[in-house]
Design goal:
Blueprint lengths: L5 H9 L6 H12 L5 H14 L3 H13 L14 E5 L8 H10 L4 E5 L9 H5 L11 H10 L2 E5 L6 H11 L7 H14 L4 E8 L8 H17 L3 E8 L7 E3 L1 H11 L5 H18 L5 H7 L1 H12 L13 E6 L4 E6 L1 H11 L15 E4 L6 E2 L4 E7 L5 H11 E4 L9 E5 L1
Parallel strand pairs: 1-4, 2-3, 4-5
Antiparallel strand pairs: 5-13, 6-9, 7-11, 8-10, 8-12, 9-11
Helix pairs in contact: 1-3, 2-4, 2-8, 4-9, 5-12, 5-14, 9-10, 15-16
Bound molecules: uracil.
Length: 425
Amino acid sequence: MSEFAAVDVIRAKRDGGELSDAQIDWVVDAYTKGVVADEQMSALAMAILLRGMTPREIARWTAAMIASGERLDLSSVTRPTVDKHSTGGVGDKITLPLTPLVAACGAAVPQLSGRGLGHTGGTLDKLESIAGWQATIGNDAFKRQLQEVGAVICAAGDGLAPADRKLYALRDVTGTVEAIPLIASSIMSKKIAEGTGALVLDVKVGSGAFMKDLDAARELASTMVRLGTDSGVRTVALLTDMNTPLGRAVGNAVEVAESLEVLAGGGPADVVELTLALAAEMLAAAGIDADPAGVLASGKAMDTWRAMIRAQGGDPSAPLPVARENEVVRAASSGVVTSVDAYGIGLAAWRLGAGRARKEDPVSFGAGVLLRVRPGDRVQAGDVLLELRADEAGRIPAARDEAVGAVVIGEKAPSTTNLLLDRIA
Ligand code: URA
């Protein structure tokens, strides 16, 4: 591989140039090996954020990140494989009911998930609130569980796209997470390396998401769909609203409890709607003709959930952790709830201890926010709007400050908004 000077690559992108394939291959490989320093990659990431990348550059960058590690071979799994990835939101527990539901319909769902950082929660943190459940499993156990149960949610192994792990941590502290080429290549390098045959993306749009507006979300979605399709992964994206938290529970154990309600045939309408919409897309992408609503109602998805939790050492019957402290936020005036801001609620849950400030911090499993109202509900002054749960009482005042401003009470009912905003294939 040819050698370049990192500073020349940085200058080329800073001045709006297009990087060659050889420059991209070199810089990603050299950064992974520690030859290109963090401060050099930070400058390059900022230049990419400001200048963008062409489709060719993004495809090559993604391929270089895949090539930095191993690529799983799932050909021994006889069921069609299909995965879902959400770009991250508040109260987004959809992976929990969706994975066993799609598996119960006949697919194999390899869900390599992450931990939460900042105001968005992580699927692994939620599942770790179940007694005994292990996030880390080896590649052989992963494939066996995929074949036998049809559903695995676990931590991505260190061997998968190591360039992304290093780069993502750097972007997180250098204000470069929001670059569309870097988000698209980060997500798709992991999904392509994971070996899934089909992929459904849930691209979140709104205050609680990375993408605050629909145009940026469309650009991200179409970039990822193209990367997947060009790599032989059948890829579809749904754009979904993230101005309001999903469901009524935001946290870890509280989100598991809400997911169990969905698997038992109940649960909040928006969580059920999105679970069924994504399941329908995943089954179509996998070429499986099944009725996810019927399978959910039959209890088969709950059976698969229990098998999936047990296979990773968890006790599906164990009581979930409950936080020690519980305080409510009450309405200061009477009227109609006009909005419940996802970002504010996400921050409140984070301050309560449900999320972490640094990646090595622990999370509190019982902490979180329970929404007692949704947009459109009528309230009287003094009614309970939110419940705040924390293990340490000292966390509640700062969370309360965030939470109070997140629920807006007005005079007129808000116009109804759609949860499903667009579909990109
Ligand atoms: N999720 C990822 O995996 N990568 C990003 O860059 C953003 C969200």
